[in-house]
Automatic annotation (TrEMBL):
Gene: menB
Organism name: Vibrio palustris
GO biological process: menaquinone biosynthetic process
Co-factor(s): hydrogencarbonate
The protein's name in its UniProt record: 1,4-dihydroxy-2-naphthoyl-CoA synthase
Lineage: Bacteria, Pseudomonadati, Pseudomonadota, Gammaproteobacteria, Vibrionales
The keyword Isomerase is annotated on this UniProt entry: yes
Reaction equation(s) it catalyzes: 2-succinylbenzoyl-CoA + H(+) = 1,4-dihydroxy-2-naphthoyl-CoA + H2O
Signal peptide (residue range): none
GO molecular function (one): isomerase activity
Keywords for this protein: Isomerase, Lyase, Menaquinone biosynthesis
Function: Converts o-succinylbenzoyl-CoA (OSB-CoA) to 1,4-dihydroxy-2-naphthoyl-CoA (DHNA-CoA).
Amino acid sequence: MAKTVGISEEVLYAPVEWKDCSEGYEDIYFHKSVDGIAKITIARPQVHNAFRPKTVKEMIHALAAARYDERIGVIILTGIGEKAFCSGGDQSIRGDYGGYQDDDGTHHLNVLDFQRQIRTCPKPVIAQVSGWAVGGGHVLHMMCDLTIAADNAQFGQTGPKVGSFDGGWGASYMARIVGQKKAREIWFLCRFYDAQEALAMGLVNTVVPLDTIEQETVRWCREVLQHSPMALRCLKAALNADCDGQAGLQELAGNATMLFYMTEEGQEGRNAFNEKRHPDFDKFPRNP
């Protein structure tokens, strides 16, 4: 059994103090803790936390706020209540011209932007899943770096039942996680899988009792917060690069550039340019 070292159980399970930052949002709640955790909660229980374009716009805004807050080191994505994490796109507002309609009648598939944002956020994003995680909601939990599932969680894809599909990360990344055969089963049959089945196929990291789901998720967040933010940033980019092609390599290389800027060697080049002199790179070792 995995064991946590370097931090006490008392600290890991200490009550969390949330600051409500939800002002201006209609479809989500946004909270930050004093110890560096942000939490984005989809709050549309009347439709099992299905998202509409406004929901996604608000999640994009909140995730960006968490990313650029230097006090935040890890982000939770969850849904309000016990019945659903997220049931995907709200089919009642799906239009005829390629997306989900906003109040002005404009069609959107902006959840794809949110998927990319989760993927490229340099801070770990953890899905806290209770109840249904299906359709586009299932893809969202997969896009998160880790998934903590309550014992009442149900996972599955519904797209082919409602004339939809996700041929991007929803298909390719799922196949990386569970294998080609299982991914085809999930998509072609549209079955639902309970939390233990999801754990067995590698879709989630752990299953915990429903009444302790937030406590356990916060515990995982606090473990993450003990570690080097730069190391975590580079590891996330490296793990993504395996699947994300040139975009993944660009993210990983950008982090390498950031690290190089922090070195004396990198700063010598900048300083020489600003001081209008030749850089002296001979003073730096040429390691084998």
